[in-house]
Amino acid sequence: MAPDISDALAAGLFQAAHQPLIRAIVDNLSEGVIIADAAGTIVYFSPSARAFQLFGLPRMGQETWRTRFTITDPITQRPFDLERLPLVRALAGEVHAADMFVQSDLHPEGQHLHVSGQPVKNPEGELLGAMIFIRDTTRERQAEARQREAEQRFRLIVEAAQEGIWTIDPEGNTTYVNRHLAQLLGYTEQEMMGRDAIDFIAEEHRAQVLVNFRKRREGISDVHELALRHKSGRTLWTIISSNPLYDAAGHYTGALGTITDITQRRQAEQRVIQLNEDLERRIAERTAQLEFSNRELEAFAYSVAHDLRAPLRSISSFTLALSEDCADQLPSEGQDSLKRIRAASQRMSDLIDGILALSRVNRAEFQETEVNVSTLARQCAEQLKRWQPERAVTFHLQEGLVDRGDVRLLRSVLENLLGNAWKFTRERPQAEIHFGVRPEPGPSRVYFVRDNGAGFDMEYQGKLFGVFQRLHTQQEFEGNGVGLATVQRILRRHGGRVWGEGQVDQGATFYFTLHEPPPSAIPPPR
Q1: What is the reported pLDDT for 202?
Q2: In this structure, which CATH number among 1.10.287, 1.10.238, 1.10.510, 3.40.1350 belongs to the domain 270-363?
């Protein structure tokens, strides 16, 4: 802005007597000062004006301006009308100011200038000349341009963001929303500006939002789920990250929130919860039905087994009586038939015993305690040796194996597995039976019982644990076909499983686990 000049000073501006005073004043101004006479001839440059190096040589005339400088409007970038130059307007008797972009040989990159001109007249109103005040605004313009670019980039980022941006003042009124948030809530940005943020919050969350406003004023940031109200009235679930805002002096000016729409995720979660509830209900119903069916089946099996014992006892008794009392009256074919009938009756009795044993596995009360499995295996081995002391069998039993389970049921597992190994090694002159734990690490301990007996064909592995399924004939090896089925049921009650592998005449190995984490992470050995 040009400083005020009194009429007295203006009147004596071009008088030699006043030039020292004038020079002392203008030389200390921060703005560059140029003085021209009434003819437009430059008669004085202040030091600041020389620093600009705007007008080249002293006493440059107006026509020289037109040829030495390129002047454009900084906004329109069109050539500056020389008739609008402040010097020209001032020499025409007007006070005039203008912003311009000036390029010259000395400054080919150009300078932004704010130039103002003021006519100098004597007391009679005659034009004596003009004073031109120049201020270099290049840095200001560059700073403003950088600021505008930064603001433009920020606005583009904010507007392109797929998250809502929301700022409020200390009273909770909306000061800014980006397009994404406005569209999310069904409004335009203009409709939301200035409104209380509470207007856009679902009823059930408004009390909590007021508490959150107080936390922001206390400088507390947080992230939480928030239900917003769409313009149509429906509820939108979001996650909002909210932070307090401060000015340069550290005063609280409001809060900034970034909002992510999680409505679809919440709906999916609700569907999953509903599906889980339905699944749990259906599982409970099916479990109850299965338990009822199992109880009915067990009761039926138990009843049938008991009911069959009476006729079997009769058949066995009558055939025995016939063979004893009428032996001399029966031919050898008849005697053989009676023996076959009695053997079949005994076989039937064994099968009934197997059915009853199998049903007792599920009916028996499960009492889990700490069990020394090695001790159980040793007791089973000693019992087998007492049963057939004449056999040459070597047991290799790993010591120190302790686990949790029902001791009676685990004893039955080992009796069946070690008993099978004892039975199927009877053709070996030196039988070897091993019991222990596989050394490989895994999610659960894997026990094994291995023998060097008859083995089996892996093609029929699927029949191993079926009720009454046998891989050897009764004439080869006795049995009722329920031992391994019983083992499988017991281990299932312990949260484990059992599998076997073997090779004909090369022995067999049965593996089992207890308390195996679901889903099973232990594949059968290859």
Answers
A1: 92
A2: 1.10.287
